[in-house]
Amino acid sequence: MDWVDTFFGHGKDLNSLQMSCRAIVIFFITLILLRIAGIRTFGKKSAFDNVIIIMLGSILSRAVVGASPFLPTCVSSLAFVLIHWALGKLSYYFDFVGKIVKGEKISLFRNGNLNNKAMRRASISLKDLEEGLRLSLNDSDWAKVKEMFLERGGEISVVKE
Question: How many domains, the chain?
Fold first, then answer.
C-alpha cells in the first residue's frame, strides 16, 4: 500500500501531488453524491437545497486538504446526502414535512392590497415587489396583478388578473 501513501498521503502534511489526487477522487465522489441527491439540488435553489451544496463543499474540502480522515469524511458526506434525499422524498408524500423543511409560500399582495405584515416578516420591500412585477410580467402595471407570492425558493411570483 506504499502507492496509496505516495499518491494520497495521510494527515495534514500533504504535497501537491497528494492533494491533487485527493481532489480528483473527491470530484468524482461529489458527482456521485449529487446524483444521489437528485438534479433538483441545483435547479431549485431553495434553502433546503442550498444547505446540501454548502455543507457538502465544506465537508468534502476537509478530505482534500487532509484536515479530516479521507474515508470517514466521504462516508459522512454520503450520510448527509441520504438525509437530504430522504427528507425530499418525505416532503413529497407528507405536506407537513415539506412545510417544515422547505417552508410555505407567503401571500404579499392580493386583490389590490399589500400584505404589509407578511412583507415585513419576509423583509420584502415595495421595491422588491415592483421588481418581481417587472420580471414576471415585463410590465409595471399593478392593475394586471391579482396576487403576488414569495415562493418557498425565495422568488417572487405573480398571478395575473
Answer: 2
Nine cell digits for residue 59 = 465537508
CB under 8 Å to 129, separation ≥6 — which residues? 108, 109, 114, 119, 148, 156
Please report, in tens digits, the pLDDT of each residue of the chain (161 residues total).
Answer: 688 778 888 777 888 999 999 999 999 998 888 888 776 665 666 777 788 888 889 999 999 999 999 899 999 999 988 998 898 899 999 999 999 988 899 999 999 999 999 999 999 999 999 999 999 888 888 888 999 999 988 889 999 98
Q: Are 14 and 65 in contact (CB under 8 A)?
A: yes
Q: Which domain holds residue 117?
A: 104-160
> Residue 128's domain is classified under what CATH number?
3.30.240.20
Residue 107: name the closest of 150, 52, 45, 55 by CA: 150
Which amino acid would we find at residue 124? I
